[in-house]
Structures are given as structure tokens and as C-alpha cells.
Amino acid sequence: MLEYAEPVTKLIDEFKRLPGIGHKTAQRLAFHILRVPEADVERFVGALREVKERIGFCSICNNLTDVDPCRFCSSAGRDRSMICVVEEPYNLVAVEKTRSYKGLYHVLHGSLSPIRGIGPDDLHLANLLPRLKPENNEGIEVSEVILATNPNTEGEATANYISRLLKPLGVRVTRIAMGMPVGSDLEYVDEVTMDKALANRHEI
Amino acid sequence: MGLIETEAIILRTYNLAEADKIVICLTRKAGVIRGVARGSRRLKSRFGAGLEPFTLVALSYHEKEGRELVALRQAEIISSYFNLCSDALMVSSLARMAEMVIEFSPPHEPNERVFRMVSACLEAISRSPASLEELLGYFEVWLLRLSGFLPDITRCSVCGSSLRDSVAVFMDAEGRLRCRQCSPGALGASLSEEVLGRLRAIRRLSPDAYALEGLKGSAESRKELDRLTSIIIRRALERELRAKPLVLQS
Ligand SMILES: [Zn+2]
Ligand SMILES: [Zn+2]
């Protein structure tokens, strides 16, 4: 890597630290930065700094936020009797995009992964149980917790683990349906997905 | 190189870039291999649920000369154990099995007996999930045996006398078994008659038969077997396994 001036090499190395970025992409990004006007770079650096300075976890739901509690947790328009549990903040965005869910969220920041040595203590799980008490939820009782972890092995194990923690408390715990992606064709669906789709069928 | 088709058990996956996965699997024809499944995280991916850990699939892949990673083309499900995985203890136990297979199998070296043993254990676990602990013990002993780390359980490693006749059996610092006479001062870990019985039963029986037999044994001896395999695993890998059985603490 001696062919570039040191600052360029340093920038390439920084890009390479980002997830999903290999050497070639890092190189392309670095040369893009060299080409763009100074002002654009300043704006980019400012955005990086601002996100680190101003964004933290919501103390109630662990969502990323610039105000604490976050906009969901402090909104009068949200249904406080429902909590939707997701793995990552971007999963919350996916649920929110439906515009049909009006409840609150709880972000775990991960899923159980014995293979990677990620256990329950590594998830943001400890502040979920206290939320079910009305005194911690503006006097409102939580009637349902929806487990919207990923439909894969780790997401399933996580959902199962949380449901076993919550069930003794008498709250209704539900799991999002697994099944056919809209716009797909039965012919190309594997048997696990088909099996889940059948198990989650409903009356029409 | 052309297309290779073989049965395979998915052991572990990692996300790569936007929509891909790196997959480690145990194949029948080529042993443990690592491959890239392009686009496998997309909604309409042709891989579907076929790359979830512990799935038995008909795998096809391309190998490139001089490349460690193969390119996965297709993974048609033969048996899926996805329904088992709703349980955290089950997932963590299967993860431990997967880690052991990866650690104890040299890459790209086919081993028909290991493949058959792993598939038979998965099958047995899915038939009787309640026997998970027994079957995990069975799996560990067999994997250690097939990779040459299990000591001879029939004869004393020093004098060669049958261990059945010894009043007590000990494991020395090298992990070999010794009779009472060859263990002056009774040094090393002593093995109970019941755990030796379990080791003999594991050698003799199919996983299903051992699951039934093992449940009749004491919980004490199951724990002892667990300690014994842990010692051998630690000695072989020079570290602990990362995946630990996960029990619900509430
Ligand atoms: Zn919040
Ligand atoms: Zn001896």
C-alpha cells in the first residue's frame, strides 16, 4: 500500500473499517472524497461528529435518539399498552413504515447468538420487564408484547427466550408471522417457509 | 472447476456486505468448507431457509483454483431443524456441536463417519428433544473418538490390562486412562464405573438407543461425562469452546 501518500492510505484504512467495505470500495470512496469540494467534506465531517455527540439510547426503549425519552416514548399519540420488540433500530424503522402500528418499541441491539458468544446479558433486555408495570408506564398497563425479532434461527431463539421471561407476568406475548413474501410464487418457496405460512394461516 | 454437488449440514453463517452470507458447512464429499452465498439475505433469495444453521441440504457449489471460499449456487432442503430452534437451550447446544465440528475437522478433508454421525445425532435430537443432554454427550464422545482424541477406554495405557478388572480407573495428565496399579497415590481424575459404562454404551449403541439407555443413568454420571469430555476438549483445543449451553435464568 505504499503507492499513495500517507494521508490517502490512512483514509482508505478508515473506510475499510466500515462494515461491508473491502479494499477496492474503500479506495473508490477515498478518491471520491479527494475530488469533492471542501464544503461537502466539511458537511460530511460535521454530520459524523454530530451523530456521535447528539445521539444516544432512549432510557426507556433503547432506540437511538437525540432527546431522552425518544419521540415514540414521549408521544401522546402512541398506544402505550403495546410494545413491539425489535433487534435493531433499523428494524424499528421497517415496522414504522407500515404506518399501521401505533404502539411503543423496545430495541434489543442484537439477538441471542451462542455461536458468537452473545448471551442475554449482552442484549438491552434488562429494562424491558420494568416497563410492564403501570407505574413505570404513565399508569397504563401493557396488554401485549409483540416479538418482531428476525425470522431466522437467532431471532427465533431470542423471541422464545423473551416470551418465557414475560409469560409468568401474565402479559399477552405474540410473535410476528413467518411465511410467504408478498409478490412471490408458491413454486419457489422452501418447505420451512411454506410450513410457517401454513401454521400462521388465518380465516378470511 | 465445475459444479460440485453434495449433501451438507450448515454449521454457521456470517453476514457479508449488503445481502450476502458466508456459510461454513460440513459436506459429505469435501468435509468442512467455507463458501459465499450471494444475495442470500434478499427476500426472494433462491436459498430461502436452506442456509439456516443445522439444516441438512443438497448443496451445489463452484470451487475456484487457489481460493479458500467456494461460491454456493443452491441449497435444497433435505431436513430442516428450524422448528427445534425456537428453544434457546437447544440452539446453544446445537451451536456447541457446530463449533466442535468446525474446530475438530481439518478443512476440505472428507470424513464419511463424521458426516454420518453428525446427521444421525441431529436426527435423533429432532426425534427426542427431551434427550438433548444425553445426545450432546453421545455426540461429543463420538466426535472426540473419530478425531483421535478419546483415550482407549478398554485397556490401561501403561500395563495394557483390561480396565474392566481394575478396582478404579484414573485419567493421567496426558488424558490417558490408567488402572489402579499404574496410578501410584491415585493421582489424576478418577472415573466412576458408571461413566465408563456410559462410554462403553456410546461406542456400542446408536444415538437413539443411547438416549434411552442414558436416561436410565444418574444425572451425576451424566455431569461426570460432561466434565470428562470438557477436559479432553480443552486439552485438544488449548481453550474452552465459545458456545455454552444457555439456560433460562429468571
Ligand atoms: Zn424510547
Ligand atoms: Zn495398568
What's the SSE blueprint?
The complex is a heterodimer of chains A (204) and B (250).
Chain A: H1 6-16, H2 23-35, H3 38-54, E1 56-57, E2 64-65, H4 71-74, E3 79-86, H5 89-97, E4 103-107, E5 144-147, H6 153-166, E6 172-175, H7 191-199
Parallel strand pairs in A: 3-4, 3-5, 5-6
Antiparallel strand pairs in A: 1-2
Helix pairs in contact in A: 1-2
Chain B: E1 3-16, E2 20-27, E3 31-37, E4 56-62, E5 69-79, H1 88-104, H2 112-127, H3 132-146, E6 169-171, E7 177-178, E8 189-191, H4 193-204, H5 207-216, H6 219-237
Parallel strand pairs in B: 3-5
Antiparallel strand pairs in B: 1-2, 1-4, 2-3, 4-5, 6-7, 6-8
Helix pairs in contact in B: 1-3, 2-3, 3-5, 3-6, 4-6
The complex binds zinc ion (2 copies).
One zinc ion binds at residues 58, 60-61, 63, 69-70, 72-73 of chain A.
Task: Write a structural description.
The complex is a heterodimer of chains A (204) and B (250). Chain A is built from 7 helices and 6 strands. The longest helix of chain A has 17 residues, at 38-54. Chain A is 38% helix and 12% strand. In chain A, strand 1 (56-57) and strand 2 (64-65) form a beta hairpin. The relative contact order of chain A is 0.08. With 204 residues, chain A is an alpha/beta fold. The model of chain A has no long low-confidence stretch (mean pLDDT 91). Chain B is of the alpha+beta class and 250 residues long. Chain B has 2 domains: 3-80, Nucleic acid-binding proteins (OB fold (Dihydrolipoamide Acetyltransferase, E2P), Beta Barrel), CATH 2.40.50; 112-237, Up-down Bundle (de novo design (two linked rop proteins)), CATH 1.20.1440.120. Chain B has 6 helices and 8 strands, in the order E-E-E-E-E-H-H-H-E-E-E-H-H-H. In chain B, strands 1-2-3-5-4 form a 5-stranded mixed β-barrel. In chain B, strands 7-6-8 form a 3-stranded antiparallel sheet. The chains are: A alpha/beta (204), B alpha+beta (250). At the A-B interface, helix 6 and helix 7 of A face helix 1 of B. The site of one zinc ion (ZN) has 8 residues of chain A, from helix 4. One zinc ion binds at residues 58, 60-61, 63, 69-70, 72-73 of chain A.
